[in-house]
C-alpha cells in the first residue's frame, strides 16, 4: 500500500474544507460577514438547511433490505460517543477547562465529524487510495448517512444540553452583574436623596423616582435541562432523521426521488443543493469567527488546546483503531472494508463543525471553540493520514 495514496486521499478531503473556512474569513475581512450574519446562518442551518440535507440523504441511503447487515453503522457512533465522553470526563478534572465553557469543551472533545469529512475521506480512498476498485465503494455515501442517524439525534439532544448548560451559566453571571450594577446605582441615588433631605428644614420626604408600591414580578423559572433534552428530540434535525429513515424504508419511495428519470428527481436534486449550501455556510462560520475573534482574549490556554487536540486526534483515534481492528477480526463487517473505514471515522475525524453552529445559536464559547477547532483541523491532516494507513494495514 502506497503511503502517498493515503495522504492524497486525506488532502483531497481536507483541502476543500480548508478553502471554505478561508472563504469565511475572507468574507469577514470584506465586511460581508459579521456576528449578526453568523447568527442568522447558524439558526438557518439548525432550522432548515441541516434538516433538509439529512432527510433527503437518508431517503436516498436507506434500504430496508440491507439494514440488517448495516447495523454496525447504527451502533458504532453511539459507542464512539460513549468512549469519548469517558475520556472527556477524566480530562475535565485533570486539565481544568475554563468554568464558563467547560461543558462546551466537553462537547468539542466528544463529538467527531460524521458527515462531510467521512464522506470526502471515503470517496478519496475509493478514488486514490487503498479502496480503489473495491465494489463496496458504491455504498460509501449510504454508509456515511446511515451512521449519521444516531450521531445527529445525540448531538442535537445530549450535545445541545451540554452547550446549553454553559449558556445558562452565562445568563446567571450576566444577571448577577446586572443586579450588582442596579444596586450600586440605587445606593448612590439613596445617598443623594438623604443628603438633600438633611438639608431641608421641613419634614418632607423625597420619594425615589424608581419607587413603586407593587412588588417586582419574579423572573420566570428557567426551563430544566431534562425538559430541554426531551424537547430537543422533536426539533428539526432529529425529526429529519426519523422522517428520512421512515420514508427510505417504504418500498418505492427511494426510486421516486433518486432515479434519474423519476418525476421527483429534479425536486430531490434541487433540495440536495439547497441543503448542502448549509453545510458550506456552517464551515464558513468557523473561518469568520476566527477572524472576528483574533484580537479577543481567549479563556482556553495553549496547554488546554494542546491537550484536547491530542486526546481527540491521538488517544481517541488509537482507541478507535483497536476497536475497529477487533470488530474486523470478529467479522462484524462481513469483509466490507468501506463500512469498516466509515465506522472508524467516528473516532478519527476532528470535532464536528456543528460545535461552532451551536455556540453561535446559544452565544457561548464562540471564540474559544473556533480556536480549538482550527488547531484540531490542522493537526488532523497528519493524524488521519497515519491512522488511515495503519488501519488498512491490519484489515
TrEMBL record:
UniProt family annotation: Belongs to the auxin efflux carrier (TC 2.A.69.2) family.
Function text: Involved in cellular auxin homeostasis by regulating auxin metabolism. Regulates intracellular auxin accumulation at the endoplasmic reticulum and thus auxin availability for nuclear auxin signaling.
Gene Ontology CC: one annotated term: membrane
Keywords, comma-separated and alphabetical: Coiled coil, Membrane, Transmembrane, Transmembrane helix, Transport
Ranges in a coiled coil: 170-197
Keyword Manganese: no
Membrane topology of the entry: Multi-pass membrane protein
UniProt protein name: PIN-like protein
Segments passing through the bilayer: 6-29, 41-61, 73-95, 107-125, 145-165, 233-253, 273-292, 304-328, 340-362, 374-394
GO biological process assignments: transmembrane transport
Compartment list: Endomembrane system; Membrane
